[in-house]
Predict the structure.
Amino acid sequence: MKQEISELQQKNIELKIKNEHLILTTFEHEYPKAVKEKNQLMITALADSLKAISH
């Protein structure tokens, strides 16, 4: 029984990941400019964080 629950939880996580991927690829297809801008903001924020850590 525990094994079955564990397998179902694993399957659930895999499906959630696939679902997120589908949502992202659909969004990227429909709104490429918005996705590109968001990615750029995330990259900038990460770069700023790295600079802050390294100084």
Remarks:
- The radius of gyration is 18 Å.
